[in-house]
TrEMBL record:
InterPro entries: Fe-S_metab-assoc_dom (IPR003808). Pfam families: SufE. Belongs to the SufE family. SUPFAM superfamilies: SufE/NifU. It comes from the Bacteria. This is SufE family protein. Residues 10-131 form the Fe-S metabolism associated domain.
């Protein structure tokens, strides 16, 4: 697992119960804004997510892949998951992102606090990013 993502996983492992939800909500507030010139309409929807989520993968430079996510403020769980992926994977080489275990999110320990459907949404986000990188 790439070091930035491993550090996030460690942060979640260090807290219990409701503190995991609090941490997820903190991540939701830190979802990076879209860069100028990238509009949600030009991004790919992720219909597996319960809330509207859009992503864009810029792999023009495969040594530093850029990931962008858009989710509404009223969808804090979805925004939190997107922020984890953005902060944990943005700017990494394509090969490192492709090497992330598909089920890495289980290590966050959110299964008791977040519905399986929402966890599948995070899995779908990562799967779509990887699909873009495989081209």
């Amino acid at each position: 697992m790439p070091p930035p993502l491993a550090e996030i996983v460690d942060d979640f492992k260090a807290v219990d119960g409701q503190d995991k939800i609090t941490l997820l909500l903190e991540f939701s507030q830190d979802l990076p804004a879209l860069p100028a010139g990238l509009e949600q309409a030009a991004m790919e929807p992720v219909p597996e997510c319960q809330s509207p989520l859009f992503l864009s993968v810029d792999a023009e430079d495969r040594s530093a892949v850029r990931l962008f996510f858009s989710a509404p403020p009223e969808a804090p769980t979805t925004r939190g998951f997107a922020s984890i992926l953005a902060q944990g994977l943005d700017g990494l080489p394509a090969d490192e992102i492709l090497g992330v275990p598909d089920d890495f999110y289980t290590e966050l320990g959110l299964a008791d606090a977040v519905s399986p459907l929402r966890l599948r949404g995070m899995s779908a986000m990562l799967a779509r990013v990887k699909r873009h990188l495989r081209g």
